[in-house]
Write a structure and sequence with these properties.
2 copies of one chain form a homodimer.
Chain A: E1 3-6, H1 15-25, E2 29-31, H2 43-50, E3 64-67, E4 70-73, H3 75-86, H4 93-117, H5 130-158, H6 171-186, H7 188-194, H8 199-209, H9 212-218
Parallel strand pairs in A: 1-2
Antiparallel strand pairs in A: 1-3, 3-4
Chain lengths: 242, 242
């Protein structure tokens, strides 16, 4: 079974949460838009779905996956759909619900991290909202990072196992890895200062990075570098002052 | 089976998406925090869970439901968990995934509507971020409302039935009703101007409001009035100018 992933070809973005699951599971997947346009790839491949020219559920935005007859958009819905087959969630309803709940909170942090550099409008450049971004980023660092990461630290403390759902590794652990990677890139000073408060989360991040298939992926050209065109962005003026 | 809902007792907020499902299904539920504190209710009942003093999954914020041994937070996860039992989603995996995807997009709009009045920080008063709010609201009205509501209009056009998933009524229709209700309250001028572009969505909103149990709920004191302490807020200066 090949899963077709559709996501902007030049950034990690929200698509990376799906890529990590596919890579860690070692399944055959096609990152369609990263193929040349002449080979059916490129952004045009995404646009055909967004324009409604394809059957199945209509995606509003990438990432989405095409899995046989199913078109599934929204990261948390994609992971909920794929994870049982990928072996990345325990196969019972209660565990799947807990995973979904945690993934949605990770998505909330990611959206807030995005809005630190785009607090006014996604249609404007960062430079057109830099003053507001500085204000929002200060609150994000002082209030939201402690709230959210403190929550995940508690979840790990209560899980009863090595991973966020307990003994079973899941896509939630991959997503927590990605969240921490993005925050480390965007806000290195703030994350360094906060690290002593989240030892379990820091340890989880390190252990996920050592998983063989994930380590191979992270070292490969398939893992795109972070840039200031991405969901998480490093602008020194938005990071905490020492 | 009684389901315990925990949500701030004085606003519709995100909890209302869950309340509508419980009310439309006609099930017995306990809106715990709306009971007096002396009777085990009030905000203190919520805080006991947020503080980690209860077993089960740790909620970061309300709404959450306690359903036997399960504690489930995050609106989309709550609805995905409850809907099969409430008869509010078709009983197959593909339909549940489509419902989840749509609910997540509804949640995205709701979060953006919230950020029109709080673009900088939830910890600040509206008056402390009014200038930024005016800027963000203009983009929300001009760009985001057309994008999101246009998407839902297309979803209805493609569904092949009277409701967003086709012939089967689902919690997604209730959530679309709630989204439109909130936007109508917050941005009456903008929504009136945009109405001709979304006839199916306007019609869906009217049809949902006529469902007998929902109509009874909306006319009851259980349906809280909108205020400027809620997720959706009406500030005339943020609404579109005529």
């Amino acid at each position: 079974m090949t899963i077709d992933l559709y996501y902007w070809p030049s950034i990690q973005g929200r698509g990376e949460f799906v890529r990590l699951a596919l890579e860690d599971a070692g399944v055959d997947y096609d990152d369609v838009a990263r193929r040349p346009a002449a080979d059916g790839g490129g952004v045009a491949a995404i646009q055909r779905y967004l324009a409604g020219n394809k059957p199945g559920a209509l995606p509003l935005a990438p990432p989405f996956v095409v899995d046989g007859a199913h078109v599934v958009a929204q990261v948390a819905a994609i992971l909920d759909h794929l994870a049982p087959r990928l072996g990345l969630v325990p196969d019972d309803a209660a565990a799947r619900t807990r995973a979904l709940q945690l993934q949605l909170t990770i998505a909330d942090v990611a959206a807030e991290a995005h809005d630190t550099h785009h607090p006014i409008a996604v249609s404007l450049y960062y430079a057109q909202q830099r003053d507001e971004a500085k204000r929002r980023a200060r609150h994000f660092i002082d209030e939201r990072i402690p709230k959210f990461l403190g929550h995940f630290e508690q979840v790990l403390a209560r899980s009863g196992g090595a991973w966020s759902l307990g003994d079973d590794f899941s896509y939630v652990d991959l997503s927590l890895f990605q969240l921490m990677s993005g925050l480390d890139y965007a806000f290195p000073r703030a994350l360094t200062a906060f690290a002593p408060k989240i030892p379990r989360l820091r340890d989880l991040h390190a252990r996920v990075a050592e998983r063989p298939r994930l380590a191979a992926y992270l070292a490969s050209p398939r893992r795109l570098p972070w840039t200031t065109h991405d969901l998480f962005r490093h602008y020194p003026e938005l990071d905490a002052q020492p």
